[in-house]
Amino acid sequence: MSTPLADKPLKIKEHLKAYEMFRQSLTRLTSQDNLQTFFQTLLLEMTVNTHANNSAVFIYHQAQHHLQMIATVHQGTVRDIQHDPVFSVWREPVPADITPIWRRLCEQRQTLCIDHDNPPPEHWPFGRDWHSEQGHKTILVMPMLLGDDVLGFLGLCFTSRLTPSPAQQAECETFALQAAIAYKFKALADEARLAAIAKEQENAANERARRLSETFAALRRTSAILAHDFDLKIFLEHVLLEINAQFQADAAILSLYDETKMQFTALAHVEDGKLKMKESFSCTLSSAEIFLQALIATHGCIREFDVESEAHLLLSCSLQYHRQRQHARIFALPLMLGEQVKGYIGVALRTRETIVLHQQELLLALAHQASMAIQLTRLADSTQNNAVLAERNRMAREIHDTLAQGFAAILVNLKNLRKALPALPGAVTTVLETVQQLAEDNLIEARQSVRALRPRALRQGSLLDGLRHLLDSLGRATEVMIDLNEDEAIPAIPEESEDELLRIAQEALQNALRHGQATHVSITLRAAEHQGLHLSISDDGCGFDQNATPFGYGLIGISERAARIGAALTIISEPGFGTQIIVAWQPALPGNPR
Q1: What whole-number distance in Å separates Cα of residue 292 and Cα of residue 541?
Q2: pLDDT at 102
Q3: Which helix (H) or strand (E) is 408 found in, with range?
Q4: For 106-120, how does the pLDDT look when each residue is reduced to its tens digit (9 = 90+)?
Q5: What percent of the chain shows pLDDT beyond 70?
Q6: What's the predicted TM-score (pTM) here?
Q7: What one-character DSSP code corresponds to residue 587?
Q8: How far is 256 from 466, CA to CA, in rounded Å?
Q9: Per-residue DSSP letters for 192-228?
Q10: Three-state secondary structure call for residue 591
């Protein structure tokens, strides 16, 4: 029988061993970020020291009130609980109140030794079957104690019956304590990390709110101008000043593109924080198209240009300006009208820094305001112009139907009078001649008034003259070959029809140059039967599939113009084989006026 004195070295040895195990555990815990790996290492060591057949860690989740096996070692190897068929019964959480054993473990707060051949009534029912299949005879359950909390338990399973000695039990409880400390450390670390993330998110949210507040304040300032005494020029200048201030840019410009003139017009220009006089600058068609295509590719988003490495994408007419101002980077945002780019807002910086999210959002919002203001102004101008044109047309009709018709009737009656009374006194004849001359002069003036009131695309000359002038202006701005073929005798047609046919030719040419990528365009103007005309515009461009591609604004406009003058329109196109637009016009038949 051992004496207390004889037992003392043994207890010291056991305490030293437990301390060494604890020290090693803390070393592993500080060197391993993964709790799963820590538990697996702990179970492997525990299994080797105790010669157990199986070991496992169960964690208690208070919110769900269940226990979950999170790591296990079986027959000396770590097993994957989610995929190893041996552990299929342990994949789902176990309700903590399925039997009283969890409550018993929490109350007694000490190791339970279960004889599997004579298990207590609170043993888990499905666990009893599983342990039998594995040949387990003894099961040790050690609570993971930390202060007043029971965080879970460690289980050891043996294929033989044994009664653990105090030293073995102390060793097992040391392992359970290590597991509890590791789990608590991990939980505290997670809480600290989540708190740090939450704090960072809060700071980011506050910063985001501040930036949004600045953005909304800028939008409110620009919106206030829209609401009071709106003037497009003043509004766009204010928008550009806001953009320039937000970006701290060297210069900013808001420019619209005129397709017919191939010219950009700056509606607002800011330099060194101050407004400059607006200006126009002309570029070659190829340079303008390259720049516009780069903007179209952004789908309404901001396009960032490096002045040196992407100089070939910028407007050739603006390069000298950017280099003189030592601009390094340009941010351009297209001003969209439907699917078409009608202009852009450009912000030029001397630094190569990129723009942050709130700056992008502000630029997009202000550009959207500018686009809406321009479009609303155009619609208002169009409405006003339409009203003016309608009134002028009404006045022209009134003059034609009253004064002109009246003078014509007077002339007819005077001529009939002179025929009916050939032997009139000289004085009467003189008076009649004077009246007839006055009627003829006033009829001419009335007809001139009618023509002056009707707006024309052709300010002077005929349709053929207009086509020649159009080709001459385009020929100076593009390298595309354009030729004109016409008959010697072209019948005179109404001015309105001439105007619409010229506009159709102009739109067809623009489509061929802009979208068709043509190298050769041919325009043919032929006389047709019954004083009619055939106008044809053919190109060798890329063409398009009429069944798959919806008509754009250009082709829709051509169709509407042809319909207004009662002309037949034919469009022939196929991908890779160019496009041909044919307009056949005939004068109105008697009894069927247009």
Answers
A1: 19
A2: 92
A3: helix 405-420
A4: 999 999 999 988 888
A5: 70
A6: 0.38
A7: P
A8: 26
A9: HHHHHHHHHHHHHHHHHHHHHHHHHHHHHHHHHHHHS
A10: coil
Whole-angstrom distance, CA of residue 362 vs CA of residue 27: 53
Cα pseudo-dihedral 99, 103, 109, 113, rounded to 10: -10
CB 347 within 8 A of CB 325: no
Question: Which among 170, 161, 52, 172 has a CA at the least distance from the CA of 114?
Answer: 161
Contact in structure between 111 and 167 (CB atoms under 8 Å): no
In this structure, which amino acid lies at residue 70?
A: I
Angle between helices 357-399 and 426-453 (to 10 degrees): 160
Query: Within 10 A of 272 (CB to CB), how many other CB atoms are there?
Result: 10
Q: What are phi and psi of 150, to 5 degrees?
A: -110, 110
Contact present, 267 and 236 (Cβ < 8 Å): yes
**Residue 431 in tokens:** 């008076």
**Exposed (0-12), middle (13-18) or buried (19+): which is 394, by Cβ within 10 Å?**
exposed
- Give the ranges where 482-527 is alpha helix by DSSP (H): 495-514
The H or E element that residue 285 is part of is helix 285-296
Q: Which of 593, 549, 586 is nearest to 571 (CA)?
A: 549
| Residue 560, SS3 per DSSP | helix
Mean pLDDT score of the chain: 78
DSSP single-letter state for residue 450: H
Range 513-518 contact pairs with CB under 8 angstroms and sequence separation of 24 or more: 513/285, 513/474, 513/478, 513/480, 514/259, 514/289, 515/541, 515/542, 515/552, 515/554, 516/541, 516/542, 516/543, 516/578, 516/579, 517/541, 517/542, 518/480, 518/578
Please give the structure tokens belonging to residue 436.
């007839």
What would the two tokens of residue 184 be?
A: 């608590």
Token pair of 115 as six digits:
């004889």
Structure tokens at 230: 């709106």
Can you tell me which residue has the tokens 């930390």? 146
Cβ burial, residue 231 (10 Å; 0-12/13-18/19+): exposed
CA gap 281, 266 in Å, rounded: 8
- Residue 126 tokens read as 């499905």
